[in-house]
Design brief:
- The chain contains 21 helices and 6 strands.
- The protein has helices at 5-25, 46-66, 75-94, 98-117, 124-152, 170-187, 195-202, 205-231, 236-258, 263-284, 287-318, 334-347, 354-370, 375-407, 423-441, 444-456, 470-491, 519-523, 527-535, 541-559, 564-584, and strands at 34-36, 39-42, 165-166, 232-233, 500-501, 504-505.
- It has a two-stranded antiparallel sheet. Strands 3-4 form a two-stranded parallel ribbon.
- A hairpin with a 2-residue loop joins strand 5 and strand 6.
- Helix 11 packs antiparallel against helix 12.
- The longest helix is centred in the last third of the chain and has 33 residues, at 375-407.
- The protein is globular and about 95 Å long.
């Protein structure tokens, strides 16, 4: 708190490197459990090791981006909250005792609120309040759910690893629902996702890359995986319900993303949409799909952080994140363009990048799961799968708009002097882009065998339905590219003309804007009505809750008018109710 800024930066780098080294070392040397008064407090299993390692890797890369270019007014607070946030998230991951887990989970939510307050937009206070209330409300659900777990299985002594509750009876189902709300809200799943796009729009871009795009996703899906594979004995119907939530998360968020004109909100909605694939995979109960969901979690944190940070580099150079204000920046910022393009191809599920491989695993796992169901449930499961595949196609369409609007087209005259991002920024985004490629081409030997397969092998064997050779795919893409380039060079005939409108040279404001790509979708019925309802926040849990709460309060304000006969009537009605209830019970 009191050290100079440069010392804070150095200490944060050292602590993150040390934490990453410790988690890497734990892969070969098991870490002993921590007990206090015979209660197991901290332990590290394969799932925890996976989450802990990538927490530190991603935090270190995002920190490198943040070392130069951060808003000077928030630097001091940023480099206090940054290491604390990583510490709180690490505490969640290694906590086996439910109360320790709850403590660090709440502290991680507090750090999210602190990062929200570092924003400088006009809507920052409202966004921070919304984030705090939704995350705080989900924390209350977590508290009640953990208390019910202890009530249902007191012999576990608050240990999450020793708890295994059959989903039979009202209390068990209620505990599952409460904990599911906590996991979905933290990860940004439907319908508790509405804080994510607003946080991404107004918070510092480094905070958006660190929390909604990375660490919050890790914590939410980490806890969901614990629930679906250990805390509860889940039935087929519950698997299908969770899969449905995942499919709805995918399709609703990607449809909203397609019509966004603000680049940060577009990426925020895609952060929500991609978590749907993780929920779909982890919630299916199929071993291959669970492995794919966890792998997609890692892939998402890599390419989404890359996209947020690439946009952050553009925003810091141009002063805007509105798609209508940008364009043609590939010439001025070629490195940023290439790494953003890699991130866009990865999130769109284009082989041989990492996003394709994890989605492919999820699809295969869902198909395996579907084969074991009754005919009606098979239709239900296949509908979820179709929505997921359709969502991937819409993601590609959405990022065609994003890449064009930011980097392609004619360069605006006020951007002619813009240069490439500082070294620390393209070094961070470049590292993430390399991981997108490496985790796609070397998916099995690197992340899957080292981290993912050890987690799911206790659930059963991981059997792929088909064969996928990423090197062959890469070779075919290169051949096609070189062939196309050769044809172009041989028959090249390029003519550059001015653009005319009505016989006059077109002004810059008349250039084709990327935001107009999918306006027709916004006008189609019944989508137009749905979009209008979404813009009016009719599907926003926070807004609906706020309005119903104030309506309830206003009702009591009206009936408490200060008239003595009214209060006497309240007393008489209350007495009658008490006598009636006494007779029943």
């Amino acid at each position: 708190l009191f050290l100079p800024l440069i010392i804070r930066k150095i200490l944060t780098i050292v602590s993150l490197c040390f934490g990453m080294w410790l988690s890497f070392r734990a892969m070969s040397t098991p870490i002993p459990n921590v007990l206090i008064d015979k209660f197991l407090i901290f332990s590290l299993d394969e799932l925890g090791l996976f989450a802990l390692f990538f927490t530190h890797v991603l935090s270190l890369i995002i920190l490198i981006f943040s070392l130069n270019g951060l808003n000077k007014s928030i630097e001091k607070s940023f480099f206090v909250w940054y290491p604390l946030t990583v510490s709180f998230c690490s505490g969640v991951i290694v906590s086996d005792h439910a109360l320790s887990f709850l403590l660090f989970w709440g502290l991680a939510g507090l750090s999210l609120y602190a990062f929200a307050l570092l924003g400088s937009g006009e809507e920052t206070p409202q966004m921070a309040k919304k984030t705090f209330i939704l995350i705080g409300g989900s924390d209350a659900c977590l508290l009640m759910g953990l208390a019910l777990l202890q009530h249902l299985q007191p012999m576990a002594q608050w240990s999450l690893a020793k708890t295994s509750i059959p989903l039979a009876g009202g209390n068990a189902v209620l505990a599952f629902i409460l904990l599911l709300i906590a996991a979905l809200t933290k990860a940004g799943g439907f319908p508790f996702h509405t804080w994510v796009p607003e946080f991404c729009k107004d918070a510092p871009v480094e905070g958006a890359a660190l929390l909604p795009a990375s660490l919050d996703k890790l914590l939410g899906i980490f806890f969901l995986a614990k629930m679906m594979t250990g805390l509860f004995q889940v039935s087929v119907s519950i698997h299908l319900i969770v899969m449905t939530i995942g499919a709805l998360t995918i399709i609703t968020a990607v449809m909203m993303a397609m019509n966004q004109h603000n680049a940060r909100k577009l990426l925020g909605y895609h952060a929500v949409s991609q978590v749907g694939y993780m929920i779909l995979g982890v919630g299916s109960g199929a071993v291959l799909a669970i492995a794919g969901g966890l792998f997609h979690l890692v892939n998402h944190t890599i390419y989404k952080s890359n996209l947020f940070l690439s946009l952050g580099s553009v925003e810091k150079r141009t002063g805007s994140n509105e798609l209508n204000d940008l364009g043609g920046l590939a010439r001025n910022m070629p490195i940023t363009f290439v790494v953003a393009l890699i991130g866009a191809l990865s999130i769109s599920g284009i082989p041989p990048f990492n996003g394709f491989f994890s989605k492919w695993m999820i699809y295969q796992g869902v198909l395996q799961h579907t084969a074991t169901l009754t005919p009606v449930m098979q239709l239900w499961s296949l509908l979820c799968l179709i929505l997921a595949v359709f969502g991937s196609a819409l993601t590609l369409a959405s990022f065609m708009k994003f890449i064009y609007a930011v980097f392609l087209g004619r360069t605006k005259t006020n951007f002619n002097s813009i240069r490439e991002a500082p070294v620390n920024q393209w070094l961070a985004t470049g590292s993430l882009a390399i991981l997108c490629i490496a985790f796609g081409i070397l998916a099995v030997p690197l992340p899957l065998k080292s981290f993912i397969f050890p987690i799911v092998e206790k659930l059963g064997p991981v059997d792929f339905l088909g064969t996928y050779q990423p090197m062959m795919i890469l070779a075919l893409f290169l051949i096609a590219f070189l062939l196309g380039l050769g044809i172009f060079l041989l028959v090249r005939c390029v003519r550059v003309d001015d653009i005319y409108l009505g016989g006059m040279a077109a002004e810059e404001r008349f250039h084709l804007q990327g935001t107009s790509f999918y306006n027709e979708i916004r006008r189609m019925q019944p989508l137009a009505s749905i979009y209008q309802a979404a813009e009016n926040k009719h599907f926003d849990v926070y807004d609906l809750g706020t309005r119903s709460t104030f309506s309830f309060a206003h009702f009591f304000q009206r009936i408490h008018a200060g008239w003595l006969p009214i209060y006497l009537l309240f007393l008489i009605v209350g007495l009658i109710l008490l006598l009636f209830l006494r007779e029943i019970f």
